[in-house]
Amino acid sequence: MSDSDHNMTLTLRVWRQDNSEARGKFVDYKVNRISPHMSFLEMLDVLNEQLIAQGEEPVAFDHDCREGICGACGVMINGQAHGPDKETTTCQLHMRRFQDGQKVVVEPWRANAFPVVKDLVVDRTSFDRIMGAGGYVSVNTGQAQDGNCLPVARQDQESSLDAAVCIGCGACVASCKNASAMLFTSAKVSHLAQLPQGDPERPQRVLDMVAQMDAEGFGGCSNTYECEAACPAGVSVEHIARLNREYVKASFCSSAQPTIQASAD
After folding, report:
1. For residue 138, what pLDDT is reported?
2. Is the pLDDT of residue 264 over 70?
3. Which residues does 76 contact at the CB level (< 8 Å), separation at least 6?
4. Least-confidence region, from 54-58, 150-154, 162-166
5. Are 73 and 80 in contact (CB under 8 A)?
6. What are the φ/ψ torsions at residue 162 (nearest 5 degrees)?
7. Please, which residues have CB within 8 angstroms of residue 115's CB and are 6 or more apart in sequence?
8. Taking a C-beta distance cutoff of 8 angstroms, is the pair 136, 46 a contact?
9. Which of these, 1, 147, 153, 197, has the minimum number of CB atoms within 10 Å of its CB?
10. Tell me, which fold does domain 124-137+154-255 have in CATH?
11. DSSP state of 165
12. CATH architecture observed for domain 9-116
């Protein structure tokens, strides 16, 4: 057995909170028999098995595909969204990135628009409401046209796909000092703005999605680029610049008006 195969023991400092109204606190747990080949979520599974065996409440955390695709998982690990590896989700982070005996602090995303539901689980339905405000293409009847009927320049195809890789995990919000959702919203606006299918609703889309983003209580963007650094999908801040251009163009060069009130429910 090589040194890299030896199991580790970690001290986890985990945020525990019963519900959105309760006062939370950090609780320390020592976790044994952690394989360096485990993912971070598998390590949390080991912690929960240990807690259940001791008759304690397991730690609640979000997860689904565990393949870095769905965007369900996401925690702050030692102050970094999704942990120390670039363009890596929490479920794809392996425990060999940590040292035996290390203390690891695990927190939920922190943002007013992402209230804590329980422990490490936060309510990210504000993202769903931003998408519902315009992050789609309306198709009233019939089927989608064949892709070859709508030629798209290669540069636009690639830039649109670069925006479409956003998995909506919320790391951009959690890592931003203003808790801004500009990177998420800009990715969704930029994705459709560069395709002919998204062109007819282009002005209304950007006005409504920005209005909904503001109504949800996200902060403003101050161009620190921390969102880009934390994004596990590698979404570029260039899409924020495109969103700003789309917003100015829709505000001054079209008759569209936002249909959403800029105030939280």
Report:
1. 87
2. no
3. 105, 106, 107, 108, 109, 110, 174
4. 150-154
5. no
6. -60, -35
7. 20, 122, 123
8. no
9. 1
10. Fumarate Reductase Iron-sulfur Protein; Chain B, domain 2 (1.10.1060)
11. T
12. Roll (3.10)
Q: Per residue in 26-52, pLDDT tens?
A: 999 999 999 999 999 999 999 999 999
Q: Work out the burial of residue 242: count CB atoms within 10 Å of its CB; fewer than 13 is exposed, 13-18 middle, 19 or more buried.
A: buried
Dihedral in degrees, nearest 10, Cα atoms 239, 81, 48, 105:
-170
The three state secondary structure string of 15-66 is EECCCCCCCCEEEEEEEEEECCCCEHHHHHHHHHHHHHHCCCCCCCCCCCCC
pTM confidence score: 0.92
Element (H, E) at 208: helix 202-215
What three-state secondary structure class fits 220? Answer: coil
Q: Domain locations in the chain?
A: 9-116, 124-137+154-255
In whole angstroms, what is the distance from residue 263 CA to residue 217 CA? 8
- The structure tokens 């105030």 sit at 263
Which pLDDT does position 4 carry in this prediction? 56
